[in-house]
Amino acid sequence: MTANKNLQDNLIRGETGDWEIVIGMEVHAQVLSESKLFSSAATAFGAEPNAQVSFVDAAMPGMLPVINKKCVEQAVRTGLGINAKINLHSVFDRKNYFYADLPSGYQISQFKDPIVGKGQIELDMPDGSTRTIGITRLHLEQDAGKSMHDQSPTESYIDLNRSGVALMEIVSEPDLRSSEEAGLYLKKLRTILRYLGTCDGNMDEGSMRADVNVSVRKPGDPLGTRCEIKNVNSMRFVVQAVEYEARRQIEIIEGGGVIKQETRLFDNAKGETRSMRSKEEAHDYRYFPDPDLLPLILDEAWVNHIKATLPELPDDRKNRYIKDFGLTSYDAGVLVAEKDTAVYFENAAKGREGKLAANWVMGELFGALNKENKTISESPVSADALGGLLDLIMNGTISGRTAKEVFEEMYASGKPAAKIVEEKGLQQVSDVGELEKAIDDVIAQNPDKVAEYRGGKDKLFGFFVGQVMKNTGGKANPGVVNDLLKKKLAG
Amino acid sequence: MSIDKNTVARIANLARIRLTEDEQNAMTREFQAILGWIDQLQEVNTDDIPPLTSVVEVTLPLRDDKVADGGYPEDVLANAPKQAAGFFVVPKVIE
Amino acid sequence: MSSLIELTLAQALDGLKTKKFTATELTQAYIKATEKCRSLNAYIVETPELALKQAKESDARYASGKALPMDGLPLGIKDLFCTDNVQTTAGSNILRGFKPQYESTVTAQLFRDGAVMLGKLNLDEFAMGSANITSAYGNVINPWSGSDPANAVRKLVPGGSSGGSAAAVAARCAIAATGTDTGGSIRQPAAFTGITGIKPTYGRCSRWGIVAYASSLDQAGPMTRDVRDAAIMLKSMAGYDPKDSTSVNRPVPNYLDALEGGIAGLRIGIPKEYRVDGMPAEVETLWQQGIKMLQDAGAEIVDISLPHTKYALATYYIVATAECSSNLARYDGVRFGQREAGKNLIEMYETTRAKGFGAEVRRRIMLGTYVLSAGYYDAYYLKGQKVRNAIARDFGQAFKQCDAILTPTAPSDAFAIGEKQDDPIKMWLNDVFTVPVNLAGLPAMSLPVGLSANKLPLGLQIIGRPFDESTVLGIGAALEAAAGFKALPPFHA
User: What does the pLDDT look like over C360-401, one tens digit per residue?
Assistant: First the structure.
């Protein structure tokens, strides 16, 4: 029944009843490689205009493409990472259209025979359930250059540095049912790509862009007409774009109109989608096999070798955390979402209580990092240092409360936990004699309260604990204090 | 297959070649003759013949991922009809 | 010095090696020859200073005993080959003034072997044509038109698209020239001008740096005075190039060795389908003479069938135009070449391409766009690819019965400028015997075997198995020896 409940939650209530959103995604992920897909020019981000352009990238007369082995390997690796079929025979086609930043007048892509076929991705839903999203295909293609329209009122400026950079286009089935799922899908895909090291996933730099296909229908009806929203370049915008587009379509249909299949652009500033007028009528890409390139034939042994050397993927890692560290599915999911976080967590948790380590990473550490907008790799407290702090908690040297104070100091000064505890004398007092003396003092100072407690006012117990802690400067071991107090008060 | 002037106009638009009215008319007539001639291929039974895209019987060579090209923006721009600040410059792109 | 230009490439190499003359002297003789032949309009650009500089370097190598395989030989380069900092136009207005900042692999290899460049040779625009009448730089005139070709009553075409190359070699204003062949562009002009030209196997010569017409068909090759010269020059032009993914990595044999062995016992196929309606009897007669010559030289003649021959031209005009429509999309006025004004980008594209391309190029781009467009792809492009396969399989079958095939090169001798121009299909029919070879990717050579009734050269074509240029050259040498073709055009330097 959980699925039903989720589905119910995903519906949008319109004037004529409930509507279901159907979403498919086409994600363009820049392949991590030194050089371009079909030329040996560099791919690094942020170079001077046209400085990373070969004659091939500029489509000079007579120039020919030669494919980059690394890019092929990365596509295969990604395909294996999304449990997909690797096609040992694939073909590069030309997609023909004119655009200022497309120098050859065609994009080399894969149309009929992509390098990767059907696969799937598991989404971790917030309620702890999982959803399987189908992958239709993954293919390799070239990126275009960049047109800039702001420099002049009558002219556009063209930089071809990106021209020819390798992209993987990863196409999902229309299996997503809400803006939230769309966001989770993109996030999960990015996690997988980063684990694999096949794409850096930096949406700010354009290394990952999504085209989102949205349609709406009454539950149980056939698929509605879809609109494609181009180049949505952040997780947040994906959610916004889907929400806006679904509402727009419902409004049109409920107002008696029909949806026109079209390409739309997401306006980040306004949070709206709008039609890209002229791109429509001319869509006849005249795909045909690129005669400058032969079919790409992969050696099965090579594919198997790549498979054998795949890193541990997020789903496997998550399962291991649940099993080995006793974490909840949710906590494990949070920790594996970024590979750096997972590595940090594992180093901190190694040989210690996994649950405790998870709480500290997700609690104090994340809190402190978020405050300063830092990533985990920029953390002033290393995983080993945090582990040192956990050791002191686990062996009773300091209380959890003291530990928070120590952590703050560690974060600010970079000093190891043990040193801070020693310098400040924060070691927990567990010595029975010393604590008995402190308890006796408290009992002596509060005869009225003692009488009330003994008269049946049990709630006052907390008061006595607090007084003992106060008088010991918070260093008293709370467990020992509890035991001793009970005995003494029982008198 | 016959071809009409609208199709010729659409093809000219796809090919980004401006044709005058007269040129469109002339090309329509010419295309009717050429396509009629090409239609002889329909006589050939190709049911059991796969399409041939390359006569070369080797597989696609793969190159190593090394940066060994680019880094010569002045050569890339040397023949540009118009350039500014290291960019190619074109009339305004309108969406 | 005029005697220097009478030498074949092989003879000139001997003369240079034995220090009978210097590369500079040879080059100077050819520079004079190019000046004398300007009425043919064979060269778009002459590069005498560059030629003399290269010749000087060549002389230094000869002096130090470090001569290279093509050292000091003054060549003409078809203006489809990109040449570093020397204007490369592909015969088109759209590339007027274009100076590549790179050198094509084939010309780079020729220069690596010491060759000298006299200039860039005229051609049909983007190599699309069979008469060299589509060049934006004017017609090339066949030196066989008469002793004053520019004022001849019937100004003959040199064939195309390598018409400038053919005319220059025939008129002796280049010792040899590079050509390219997509549907017959080396062989047909060679036949029309009485010279020798070989189109190697697809993948034998690198296409890198050659302005592309139809990528799956284009192939570069030498155009020379005789078979020996072709063997020497092909050796320099051929070879694997990692920059061309369709180039084939196999060793280049020493083609000169192939000229020595004779052809006894070789089986020569004669395809019955290479007799077309309206083909003059003299072409048939020449073909029979050629068959007899090979038979006399010891070859065995075998009747073969290439049943899909009649569909080759229509197939070619699907495949070649589809590829060219895409290959020529890069000529958009953005990064190089000519640009026409436009209010916005699309208008700039449309006017640039309308004015920059000539009628034949526009026609082929349009046709190619059409056969690839939605709704027509299966009926035309896909069908064409299948028939192409049928044609290639025909050859595969035939080569089970024979070692090489002998056919006429073209269905007629050279025609005059203005003839066959009313109807594009009539013009395209010129390539009926050469086009099937490109579709199958095979090596083939044309060499002059006799004269027509009009006293114009006629050529025969030898087609070989993939990468068996050696056998083609060997048969060519035998046929050349038997034919003893020595006629010179009435006009020459």
Answer: 999 999 999 999 999 999 999 999 999 999 999 999 999 999
Does residue C343 have an active-site annotation? Answer: no
Least confident of A164-173, A387-396, A478-487, C419-428: C419-428
> CATH number of the domain at C2-261+462-483, please?
3.90.1300.10
**Full DSSP string of C416-464:** BTTTT-S-HHHHHGGGTTTHHHHHHT--EEEEEEEE-TTS-EEEEEEEE
State the best of A95, A156, A278, A279 to mutate against chain B, taking most chain B CBs within 10 Å. A156
Known catalytic residue at C161: yes
* Residue of C163, C207, C167 whose CA lies nearest to C186: C163
The structural domains of chain A, ordered by start, are 2-307 (no CATH), 312-424 (no CATH), 432-490 (1.10.10.410)
Q: pLDDT (tens digit, 9 = 90+) per residue, A254-267?
A: 999 999 998 999 99
Average pLDDT, chain A: 91
Q: What is the pLDDT of residue C1?
A: 42
C2 catalytic residue (yes or no): no
**Of C92, C135, C145, C161, which is the active-site residue?**
C161
When CB atoms are compared, the residue of B7, B31, B44 closest to C387 is B44
Average pLDDT over residues B4-17: 95
> Phi and psi of A197, rounded to 5°?
70, 30
Best of B11, B43, B76, B92 to substitute, by most chain C Cβ atoms within 10 angstroms, is B11
Q: Tell me, what's the ipTM? A: 0.97
Domain ranges of chain C: 2-261+462-483
- Band (A431; pLDDT cuts 50, 70, 90): confident
Is A148 in the C-facing interface, judged by CB distances under 8 Å?
A: no
Which residues of chain A have a CB within 8 Å of the CB of C104?
62
Type of residue numbered A21: I
User: What distance in Å separates the CA atoms of residue A208 and residue A158, rounded to the nearest whole number?
Assistant: 21
Assigned fold of B5-43: Histone, subunit A (1.10.20)
